[in-house]
Amino acid sequence: MTSDSAPWTFELATEEETGRFGTALGALLVPGDLVLLDGPLGAGKTVLVRGIATGMGVEGRITSPTFVLAREHHPADWRGTTLVHVDAYRLTSLAELDDLDLDTELTEAAVVVEWGGGFAERLAEDHLLVRMSRRGDDTRELSLLPQGRRWQDRLPPAFE
């Protein structure tokens, strides 16, 4: 795994590395955090969310909520943070996003939105955009683009 200065860029050679990266990211999440995942099909967004869930200590199977749009996953420890996992792929308007009432969820949970780039930023001024791509050799390229002070202060120590 390699990293550069902000935005922080990483190369993840395997699905397992993507999961481990997600676990490290998940360990950082607290109520009020918004993470937006952006990338094409097959880039590893759901694999990353599974790792995030592990890092947060949430219970249950993590699958992409493509048809239900959002799933809530609770931590095994009552003191932990709830994960709200959203798939915005099928949303066609900001009104549909508003109908999910995610801004309310942000007061009590960490919200991770697949297909959120260019769409869900309006939920919180401070958010983390994770851009993902997959090369022909299956290496995933992942860039962390923090927006707002909330993220600037937490990310460097976790991934350097």
Low-confidence stretches: 1-5
What summary fits the major beta sheet? 7 strands, mixed
Q: Report the total helices.
A: 6
- Order of strands, main sheet, comes to 1-7-6-2-5-4-3
- Using only C-alpha atoms, the radius of gyration works out to 14 Å
What does this structure look like?
- By secondary structure, the protein is of the alpha/beta class.
- Helix content is 27%, strand content 26%.
- It is built from six helices and seven strands.
- The chain has helices spanning 15-26, 45-56, 94-99, 102-105, 149-152, 155-159, and strands at residues 8-12, 34-38, 70-73, 82-87, 109-114, 127-134, 140-147.
- It has a seven-stranded mixed sheet.
- Strand 6 (127-134) and strand 7 form a beta hairpin.
- Helix 1 (15-26) crosses helix 2 (45-56).
- The protein is globular.
- Mean pLDDT is 81; it is low at 1-5.
Could you provide a short overview of the structure?
Helix content is 27%, strand content 26%. The protein has 160 residues and is α/β, with parallel strands linked by helices. Residues 1-5 have low confidence and may be disordered.
Task: State the main characteristics.
single chain; 160 residues; seven-stranded mixed sheet; 6 helices; 27% helix; 26% strand
Provide the fold topology:
Blueprint: E1 8-12, H1 15-26, E2 34-38, H2 45-56, E3 70-73, E4 82-87, H3 94-99, H4 102-105, E5 109-114, E6 127-134, E7 140-147, H5 149-152, H6 155-159
Parallel strand pairs: 2-5, 2-6, 4-5
Antiparallel strand pairs: 1-7, 3-4, 6-7
Helix pairs in contact: 1-2
